């Protein structure tokens, strides 16, 4: 890439602007770029009247966005504090620049990170930045624990059933919500099932505070919260691993901190039932990770709302010899935003494995004289495909088979190498953005709680909301990119994987594969590995497979009879 400099200039006050600080810096930095760095191609980014307290400045953010797109090889500034007076901000920015192979140059501090000395200076700065991070974390933790010890609320989501008075720092019972809390505890104690409880809440049209449907995690949050007994408990779980409970000696528990909604006895009874249910699932009474293997987990996407499908294990079915099949439900449907039908692995497995068995058989019987129409009929043999009238892009697979006899036919196959390279760049940029917004949220909280020049509550809420919106958008983008982030294999490997699996599972001679018999006779992990090796994604529409995308990039779309 040709060298190009992003020149960043900032002045914080009107006085500085009036004194022509911007023109002076611009002139000096332009000369430095031309005659010291020997680079004529440059672009200026100017923030006038902005403080160096944080990096939320329009020109700076614009510059960083374009740097992430690969437009610049260097950043040139008057002094480090033009970027930020916050050493952590600067350190985070430098770490990102290093990953992007962008050289940072400060004129007045006289260092250039392309040189050994410049790199050494920056490493010293980063050491002190890391120290500041650690000291800040310790300070925050100490302050929070001190506040909790005196009964002060350390923030977070106010539990369902309560209102919080920010001025007086007190909790009062929200009677309408409190009735929901009581119902949740009473129903669970009477029935002992969270699944049944969720269904009961749905049947009674009882909504969450945000007017959504109660999920299993939402009711578990209520049942696990000792706050409802009038106790305020802090420093209970370990930072960074919320599943781990700290030793009881480290807990901070304030009794009679606020009005109770349920009694201590009711809370203990619910806890006993939870522990009993846990022991029934695991005879040893130890908490273990779930080992359920869902063959199509993370591969299913809703055609209506484009959300992924979640996986769960259904009850044993007598007509299936006691086999517990996986159920896949659109996440949008779970939250009441979509009406898509669920699907089971019995349907999915029968469809997919008969399709790939047909694929293999068509390949074995394929000859120079095999027409596309003959090939198409072979691909749709079996009752599971009786309502399909058309399959799009079968030509892609047909061309792969033709390549057995004519290497030139492979020219018709889509080449995804460039696409994957672009995807990698997008992922790198999105991950960088995610880290930036997460760090921004952490710094914003520190600034609000501990800075000498503390911002107002409204300023904090406004900036926090703005960052959270950007973070949410970045996370959604990452989810989509990561779902595609698998290097496709070439067509030879595609056929090799297919052949190996079919032959080893003795499926080549079966007229039609009975999925339940198949899945109960083979190691499920092997089947799951094969499915994720062969396929990238399935689009589900009206409880059926609308399309499947193979790992080699080919997508087959199925058109059904109305």
Explain this structure.
Helix 7 packs across helix 8 and helix 7 crosses helix 10. The two termini are 55 Å apart. This protein has helices spanning 14-18, 21-35, 58-68, 80-83, 87-99, 116-149, 175-191, 194-203, 216-223, 264-281, 331-334, 345-364, 372-379, 394-402, 417-450, 457-484, 491-504, 515-519, 524-534; strands spanning 5-11, 42-48, 74-77, 103-106, 111-112, 162-165, 170-173, 232-234, 237-238, 241-245, 252-254, 300-302, 309-313, 326-330, 343-344, 388-392, 535-541, 544-550, 555-560. Mean pLDDT is 76; it is low at 14-20, 283-290 and 407-421. Strands 2-1-3-4-5 form a 5-stranded mixed β-sheet, sandwiched between helices. A 5-stranded mixed β-sheet has the order 12-17-18-19-16. It has 19 helices and 19 strands. It is flat and about 80 Å long. The protein has 4 domains: 1-149, Resolvase, N-terminal catalytic domain (Rossmann fold, 3-Layer(aba) Sandwich); 162-281, Putative Large Serine Recombinase, Chain B, Domain 2 (Hect, E3 ligase catalytic domain fold, Alpha-Beta Complex), CATH 3.90.1750; 345-416 and 488-560, no CATH class; 417-487. 48% of the residues lie in helices and 15% in strands. The chain is of the alpha+beta class and 562 residues long. The longest helix is centred in the first third of the chain and has 34 residues, at 116-149.
């Amino acid at each position: 890439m040709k060298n190009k400099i992003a020149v960043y200039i900032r002045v914080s006050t009107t006085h500085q602007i009036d004194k022509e600080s911007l023109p002076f810096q611009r002139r000096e930095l332009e000369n430095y770029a031309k005659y010291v760095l020997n680079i004529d191609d440059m672009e200026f980014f100017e923030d006038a009247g902005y403080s160096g307290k944080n990096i939320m400045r329009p020109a700076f953010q614009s510059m960083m966005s374009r740097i992430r797109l690969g437009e610049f090889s260097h950043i040139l500034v008057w002094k480090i504090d033009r970027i930020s007076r916050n050493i952590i901000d600067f350190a985070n920015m430098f770490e990102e620049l290093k990953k992007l192979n962008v050289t940072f140059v400060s004129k007045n501090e006289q260092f250039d990170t392309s040189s050994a000395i410049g790199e050494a200076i920056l490493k010293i700065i980063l050491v002190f930045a890391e120290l500041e991070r650690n000291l800040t974390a310790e300070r925050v933790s100490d302050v929070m624990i001190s506040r909790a010890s005196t009964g002060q609320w350390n923030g977070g989501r106010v539990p369902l059933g309560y209102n919080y008075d920010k001025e007086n720092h007190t909790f009062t019972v929200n009677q309408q919500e409190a009735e929901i809390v009581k119902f949740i505890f009473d129903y669970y104690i009477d029935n002992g099932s969270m699944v049944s409880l969720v269904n009961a809440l749905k049947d009674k049209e009882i909504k969450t505070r945000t007017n959504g449907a109660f999920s299993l995690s939402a009711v578990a949050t209520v049942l696990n919260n000792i706050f409802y007994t009038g106790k305020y408990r802090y420093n209970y779980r370990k930072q960074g691993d919320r599943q781990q409970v700290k030793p009881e000696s480290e807990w901070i528990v304030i009794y009679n901190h606020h009005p109770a909604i349920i009694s201590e006895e009711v809370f203990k009874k619910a806890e006993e039932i939870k522990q009993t249910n846990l022991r029934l699932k695991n005879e040893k009474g130890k908490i273990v990770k779930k080992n359920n293997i869902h063959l199509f987990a993370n591969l299913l996407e809703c055609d209506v709302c484009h959300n992924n499908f979640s996986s769960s294990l259904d009850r044993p079915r007598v007509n299936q010899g006691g086999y517990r099949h996986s159920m896949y439900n659109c996440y949008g449907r779970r939250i009441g935003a979509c009406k898509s039908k669920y699907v089971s692995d019995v349907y999915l497995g029968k469809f997919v494995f008969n399709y790939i068995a047909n694929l293999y058989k068509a390949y074995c019987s394929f000859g120079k004289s095999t027409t596309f129409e003959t090939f198409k009929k072979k691909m749709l043999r079996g009752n599971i495909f009786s309502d399909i009238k058309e399959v799009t892009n079968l030509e892609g697979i047909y061309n792969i088979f033709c390549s057995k006899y004519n290497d030139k036919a492979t020219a018709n196959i889509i080449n995804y190498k460039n696409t994957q390279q672009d995807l990698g760049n997008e992922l790198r940029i999105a991950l960088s953005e995610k880290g930036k917004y997460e760090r921004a949220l952490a710094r914003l909280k520190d600034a609000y709680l501990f800075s000498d020049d503390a911002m107002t509550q409204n300023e904090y809420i406004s900036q926090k909301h703005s960052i959270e919106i950007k973070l949410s958008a970045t996370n959604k983008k990452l989810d989509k990119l990561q779902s595609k982030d698998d290097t496709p294999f070439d067509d030879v490997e595609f056929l090799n994987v297919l052949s190996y699996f079919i032959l080893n599972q003795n499926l080549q001679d079966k007229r039609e594969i009975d999925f339940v018999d198949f899945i109960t006779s083979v190691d499920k992990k092997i089947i799951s590995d094969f499915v994720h090796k062969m396929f990238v994604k399935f689009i589900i529409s009206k409880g059926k497979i609308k399309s499947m995308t193979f790992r080699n990039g080919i997508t087959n779309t199925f058109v059904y009879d109305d």
